[in-house]
Amino acid sequence: MENTKVLVFSPCCASARRSLKTNLCKWCDSTPPACEEKVCYSNCNLNSYCEDPYEICVAIWRQDNESIRISTLCHNPHRPIENLMVPNYNTSRCIMTHQPSEDGIIYICGCVDEQECNDKLIFENHTNGYSMLQSKEVIPVAAISLLPPLLVAVMITVIFYLCRTQKRRKRAKAWGGKPGQPPALPEPGRSAEREEKLSVLMDENPAGASTTCASSRPAELLPIELDEMVGKGQFAEVWRAKLSHSRSGQYETVAVKIFPCEEYSSWKNESQIFTDASLKHDSVLRFLTAEDRGTGPRREYWLITAYHSRGNLKDYLSHHVLSWMDLQKMAGSLVSGVAHLHSDYTACGRPKIPIAHRDIKSTNVLVKNEQECVLCDFGIAIRLDPSLTVDDFANSGQAKVKNYELPFGSKVQEQPCVDTMRDIVLHGRGRPEIPSSWLVHQGMRFLCDTITECWDHDPEARLTAHCVAERFNLMAQMDCDDILNNNTDNEASKTASPGGEHQDSDGSRNTQ
């Protein structure tokens, strides 16, 4: 049996002329190439490690009368692709070879031993098979065709800027009082009027200001007194603070997220997400305003939001065991918030631009009360504006890898790198383990099925946020016991505190 495997696998290894390490290839279904002389580039911003060690990097060039498109992927060279066999692939250079076809012009190349070798496409002896002039002619044609909409866009931008400037002036007058004095805030009961006046009053700044301390000072700073630091992340500190109401002498407890001068770009991105009026939702952290304070190297950037004393979900779950009803309602509120971010419409039916949070984890969820959670920390969130290009999305930042990844704690070191996580999740198709004790409970088993479908390896097969919200509506109708662990969690009963609260039990970790 073992001899048979060796005989079958050896030709693959010999022909590919490489070790058991898999190739890293560009992987895009269809991208327009960028050409210069006899060399083109795929323009693909995505890559992936090949699933098997004998797979090679492949690029397919398709050209018709209207356009040129490039497909890049990993492929077994011993099998045909679109009825074509990949020729001359035992090289680190992707040399395009013309292939006969009735559907326009087709070139194909394969390569190994060099990362993303199917990005650079080389034409050597087939200059008649493609037209570099055609690619260059697209530029003036595109410029002429895009000129009218570009002028319209400029006019709309100017009108929008003038309207917004006028609105700022009216809003500044609405504060009242003399210059240099803090604004007089309304009574605590008049929350609707207060939220209207506590909107962001900041100037626009050029994108290039992200590396310097830009100025975007509002007309008036809120009368806030910092109380105690309650959290610290990589980019900012979070403080509990008092927002004074000068007329009544009372104050409101708020949270202040303070960014240092060098993290201006992070503050600007999050404040722009928060200032979108369509973001407001019961399951999204309530935003008050954004400010910049201080001068020179002591300049700081503030985000002022509602304060939730129960803290983040991770810390809450480390000291509490949720009943099935509590889990259902808290998770349901979180799913409702994510569905709202992804939606094209608000609850009132008004169109909105979908938002991808891109960093949802237990430390970025705050516990509002025993039955509700709110999403926070939109530092790397992105608005899925239809006008954005593929490059805009690719250059919009990426989530940071945490020092300790709880779901894969047994498989990675304390500081796993992106390549390690890519090998585990993408190439190895690894997923967090679901404890068998969860599957005993009927509701938890249904929840685990939903979780499994959400992390399917095929993106097209994953559930949308709206589908998950529908699943939670179904769970609310299920007749389940209110005890998550049933009789299987003996550890929880052993570690129960005198007050009946389970401290750091398996149930709390599993729920997290």
TrEMBL record:
Membrane topology: Single-pass type I membrane protein
Enzyme's top EC category: transferase
Enzyme Commission numbers on file: 2.7.11.30
One Gene Ontology term, aspect cellular component: membrane raft
Keyword ATP-binding: yes
Keyword field: ATP-binding, Growth regulation, Kinase, Membrane, Nucleotide-binding, Receptor, Serine/threonine-protein kinase, Signal, Transferase, Transmembrane, Transmembrane helix
Compositional bias ranges of the Polar residues kind: 486-496
Sites where the protein binds ATP: 257
Biased composition (Basic and acidic residues): 501-512
Domain Protein kinase: 224-512
Bilayer-crossing regions: 138-163
Location of region: Disordered: 172-195, 486-512
Cell location: Membrane raft; Membrane
One MF term in the entry's GO annotations: ATP binding
Organism superkingdom: Eukaryota
Matches recorded under InterPro entries: Kinase-like_dom_sf, Prot_kinase_dom, Protein_kinase_ATP_BS, Ser/Thr_kinase_AS, Snake_toxin-like_sf, TGFB_receptor, Transforming_GF_b_rcpt_2_ecto
UniProt keyword Nucleotide-binding, yes or no: yes
Record-level GO BP terms: anatomical structure morphogenesis; cell differentiation; tissue development
Record PROSITE patterns: PROTEIN_KINASE_ATP, PROTEIN_KINASE_DOM, PROTEIN_KINASE_ST
The family this protein is said to belong to: Belongs to the protein kinase superfamily. TKL Ser/Thr protein kinase family. TGFB receptor subfamily.
The protein's name: TGF-beta receptor type-2
Organism for this UniProt entry: Grus japonensis (Japanese crane)
